[in-house]
Amino acid sequence: MAGHDTPKKIHLDESEMPTQWYNVVADLPTPPPPALHPGTHEPAGPDDFAPLFPMALIEQEVTTERYVDIPGGVLDVYKLWRPSPLFRAKRLEEMLDTPARIYYKYEGVSPAGSHKPNTSVPQAYYNHQEGITKLTTETGAGQWGSALAFATAQYGMECEIWQVAASYKQKPYRKTMMEIWGATLHSSPSELTEFGRALLAENPDHTGSLGIAISEAVAMCVADPNARYALGSVLNHVLMHQTIIGEEALLQLAKVDETPDVLVGCTGGGSNFGGLAFPFLREKLAGKMDPIIRCVEPAACPTLTKGEYRYDFGDSAGMTPLMKMHTLGHSFVPEPIHAGGLRYHGMAPLVSHVYNEGLVEAIAIPQRECFAAAIDFAKTEGIVPAPEPTHAIAAAVREALACKESGEEKVILTALCGHGHLDLASYEKYLHGDMVDYELPDDAIAEAMKSVPVLN
Amino acid sequence: MAGHDTPKKIHLDESEMPTQWYNVVADLPTPPPPALHPGTHEPAGPDDFAPLFPMALIEQEVTTERYVDIPGGVLDVYKLWRPSPLFRAKRLEEMLDTPARIYYKYEGVSPAGSHKPNTSVPQAYYNHQEGITKLTTETGAGQWGSALAFATAQYGMECEIWQVAASYKQKPYRKTMMEIWGATLHSSPSELTEFGRALLAENPDHTGSLGIAISEAVAMCVADPNARYALGSVLNHVLMHQTIIGEEALLQLAKVDETPDVLVGCTGGGSNFGGLAFPFLREKLAGKMDPIIRCVEPAACPTLTKGEYRYDFGDSAGMTPLMKMHTLGHSFVPEPIHAGGLRYHGMAPLVSHVYNEGLVEAIAIPQRECFAAAIDFAKTEGIVPAPEPTHAIAAAVREALACKESGEEKVILTALCGHGHLDLASYEKYLHGDMVDYELPDDAIAEAMKSVPVLN
User: Fold this and answer.
1) Domain range holding B158?
2) Mean pLDDT of A250-269
3) Which of A181, B85, B93, B354 is least surrounded, with the fewest CB atoms within 10 Å of its CB?
4) ipTM (interface pTM)
């Protein structure tokens, strides 16, 4: 009987690793709305993206093919840590005294410690194939910067990273990790761009922001014909690269004869959630299984549950194409919760679209509940989660406790998208009672929503 | 043909995990000399150890049985991360342009991030079985404290850790990791012991030492009938628990039809080395393979290559039984190299004995060569190693480059006994040119050797 002799760790051999990414667009009942040029408000074309991305990725951004082959040069690097393990959380289940069976796909086994290398590696690969020798990017807390630094090292490319000044100063160890892989780090705002110089002239102690760091990375990439820019979430091709998570999880669950009743994933920009959920959404749309699929976002940045589905800019400065997405307004600045990767004003257009179509649900959870669940998880399953997936764990625990009440033997699936080895300061605050849950007044959202452009 | 289609990651299923530890004593040509009572200089008996350790571990310390069954309650916890992967370092081989094939057994997948939980888990288990509710220990940099905190959490036990004051202040994140698993941390010297109070009265800003922290942990354990003490290396039972590393590696290499020509492992107290090497030494003594087996120690603490094989104390304060081991003298204070886990004046009696018998070799490597090798490793294989196993990696690189010269296709095996996520400050120093190689004058050793007791 399913679930009764499950091993702790459900393994896939290298030979069983999926060799294609999945493009959910091919199976959606309605197509997602296109990105718009920020000036003309016409659908953005390949030329609009060419200064930033290589042609292969631009094609992946708009393709309607159901599957895209993963190149051999990417598979070789994936094999450094993939297939990633699927764990049965038996010891957590025992602690919760629940009849539910909880499975988690663990992405913290990657060199950078999160799911981000699933896309940084192909992004570096395609750029390298097209003769690009340098990638620029921004990073906040540093997970994405680490992943891109690792990926560019695999193809002998340069990597230049603008890190938000506050993080650059507060998190020296993340910076060191990126430098180990050969990346060059700049505190943002920097003296290297006109924008940065102007901001520093105004305020030499400027603490920076993700929006400013994006502007600097983009400006430096555009100025160098051998350089391109890389983005760690939000875009269609990024989510597609991440579907290897869900494809592997499907194969692993099939090995133990299980199908999920509930799938929960944390959502910031949407790449971890989309990566896990989209292959299961395909199965659901095909009538092969019927899981509830639930986004979990931080209560301090409730993009799906409290934002509006509107065309908005991807960055704070309003330089990117307009994307139709759930947004709190691109001027929205979330409170400083510890899950830095979930502090984004918008949501991936693909995740926004499937949510708008009613194919997935969403809930928001305050951070102290998340850390409480993470401590229970660490004490039983061993792994110390990154702050972002503590949200997914808290949602899984809620569901497991509901099963304890109802007696239902539900199968719960989630992704533990990274370890917390470089985020222990947040746990210290939680353990010592210094962590707060932020209230988010409705008028703060109303105010930020004023920054969303009104189209026609 | 062996080595030509090796997968990147050589997997063992849970069902293939060894269920016995290996006791090398059963196969040694001559028995290792016994521990001696520090007062009488007679062989130490079970009663001498009873206030510190549970009877099951005391029996394991002196057993001559070849194999000891791993209890089910330990296997259940091992399965959180074991069997650990054996990797083929293909990308490092390519960078070095060597015909050698390099394999590394990766122990950083454990929740605490090193091989230490292989022994902290059974130590907690046996204590729990005998009704003990609390374990005390010391920790320096924090790897051992983390491992014991994790292990005691698995059995619902208390864990009280004395951390060297300097590390307690400088490495707050390690402390947080231990607290996540529910341990209580004290800066040592502490106000909790007579010894600690006396030292603080002399100097309120005392930075502590491992020897002092051991004395405090032992004093608190002896004063509490429900508490025992746990040690993370050196002793026979600790090395035996670690043999699961080598037993798994043997099975994994057999899967790809390989036998090692050279085995290298870093040595501090000796548990990582013994754990990997002893099962291979058994095969060598049985004539089934003939690897060179080589210890790699830091040039700043060259216990085997420059120490003497003498009876000496295990701790700096001279409270423990006397053990015959390679020692630099228990008053030896190594320079502050970053591989904190290798800064030990002595060497496990079992490792010392096999070295003295000529069954294994030893070399010493300065730390900058180790970090240089680690950076190459991180850039190719992805994983950022802890400072301790950078020594093993440097030795593997030396051997691989010798193969490049000679054209030999040697099979090199090593253990990557932990990741460096909580040791990035050492990499920062290396990358920014702030790391030095310490000279170790012969007269410093001669001076410290004066602290070794002269027996009879």
Assistant:
1) 117-235
2) 97
3) B93
4) 0.94
